[in-house]
Design a protein that fits this description.
It is built from 12 helices and 18 strands. It is of the alpha+beta class. Keywords: Hydrolase, Manganese, Metal-binding.
């Protein structure tokens, strides 16, 4: 039954002509995307579907922007330019929701491994809400003026897609927005509600590799070696003082060593070790303090243990840096008032900021400093939420194989909110 349902949805979507929001099958669109996820940098079929749908609705569409990115423009006279961004990639997660449209997809990851693939972060919801919002505005051109710019961004999960699209001339080739809007599912909020955060909402995210070099030897004769594992242990413990002793107590910061690899046998001191870190912050000053401190701690620990200059650690800050996400407070206040008017004041609530990362931040942190706002869309089904409130269950987090939104209620809420915000901003 589930395979028949998926096959039917696929056939209809690939053969149908969606020219307006009235023709749009939101649940069919969502279920197709959910059942057919694609990994970062591999979003070929997903982007093709979005491009075709937008083009049929009257958008001027350009594909292959920054990889599998898509840009759709709808010009409607003099007025502001609004960008609505949706992300398209999925995760290497094996779905365990048991849904009839659950993903069974597999793909080859960048590591060369074959992996299961799942929309475990809600990007299928994002694409469905963003597309229906675009179709709504295409049908209501008498109600607004300006330019609507919708973008489908690849590789958000790797923090690389926004940078790729900007480097490919997103704002130079198409338009520079006056406002940026986006949304992200929230796994701790019931469907039908929307969360917001003024100011900082998500963190700077840096990945750091530390390569430690030593002199290998027999575990029984450590005096004849230079032990990189002992050096790694000392570095790991000292890194924790960066947050507790070197940044202001009210400034958030995280330094986590997520991976350590060294050695092959009980009684062999290896000649190398590797640490992999994730580093989180909000302000650029805190970020700089943490990154400089990591390098200093690694090198000074080695020197204190008598490692010679040619064996000092090599610290590499990876290129896939994601900047912190700043929601423009004035835009937030304006948009929150609009959302409350369409979905009810009780359903629009301020939520807490997080130390996760989102490369939507890049679009607002260009030289133009474009006011940007990402809303948090509640997706937890009512029954699940009520059981959670009674203490009978836990809520699956984003990236969980059990993450299963209530698509009907959450998408309907997201479309109402995004459409209302867009209509409000697109006034001359």
């Amino acid at each position: 039954m589930s395979l028949v349902r998926i096959a039917t949805i696929t056939t209809v979507l690939l053969a149908s002509s969606v020219t307006s929001a009235q023709d749009f099958d939101r649940l069919g669109f969502y279920e197709y995307l959910h059942a057919n996820p694609e990994l970062s940098f591999q979003e070929e079929k997903t982007s093709a579907l979005l491009a075709r749908t937008w083009r049929q609705a009257g958008f001027e569409v350009t594909e292959q922007v920054g990889g599998h990115g898509v840009v759709g423009l709808l010009e409607n006279g003099e007025g502001p330019t609004l960008m609505i961004r949706m992300d398209t990639d999925a995760l290497p997660v094996q779905e365990q929701t048991g849904l009839p449209y659950a993903s069974r997809a597999k793909a080859i990851e960048m590591t060369g491994q074959e992996v299961h693939v799942m929309h475990a972060c809600g990007h299928d919801v994002h694409m469905t809400v963003g597309t229906e919002t675009a179709l709504n505005l295409a049908m209501q051109k008498e109600a607004w003026q300006g330019t609507l710019m919708v973008i489908a961004q690849p590789a958000e999960e790797r923090g690389a897609g926004a940078k790729a699209m900007l480097n490919d001339g997103l704002f130079e080739r198409f338009a520079t927005p006056d406002y940026n809007l986006s949304l992200h599912t929230l796994a701790t909020l019931p469907a039908g509600q929307i969360g917001y955060v003024p100011g900082w909402m998500m963190a700077n995210v840096d990945s750091v590799d530390i390569q430690l070099k030593g002199v290998g030897g027999h575990g029984a004769y450590p005096h004849n070696a230079k032990d990189p594992i002992v050096l790694a242990a000392s570095i790991i413990m000292d890194l924790q003082t960066l947050v507790s002793r070197e940044i202001h107590p009210v400034e958030p910061g995280v330094v986590t060593v997520g991976s350590i690899h060294a050695g092959t046998k009980h009684n062999i001191i290896p000649d190398s070790a590797t640490l992999q870190l994730t580093v989180r912050s909000y302000s650029d000053a805190t970020r700089e303090t943490l990154l400089k401190g990591i390098r200093r701690i690694a090198i000074k620990n080695a020197e204190a243990m008598g490692f010679p200059e040619d064996l000092l650690p090599v610290v590499e800050v990876k290129d896939e840096y994601t900047p912190a996400l700043w929601n423009d407070p004035e835009l937030v206040a304006r948009s929150v008032a609009v959302m409350k008017s369409v979905i009810g004041a009780a359903n629009v609530i301020e939520v807490t900021k997080e130390m996760g990362g989102e490369d939507f931040a890049r679009y607002g942190r260009t030289d133009e400093k474009i006011p940007s706002f990402m809303i948090r869309l509640g997706v937890v089904p009512d029954a699940k939420w009520e059981a959670f409130q009674r203490g009978e269950t836990n809520l699956p987090s984003l990236h969980s194989p059990f993450f299963a939104p209530d698509p009907a209620k959450s998408i309907d809420t997201g479309v109402k909110a995004m459409t209302a915000m867009a209509l409000d901003l697109l006034q001359n």
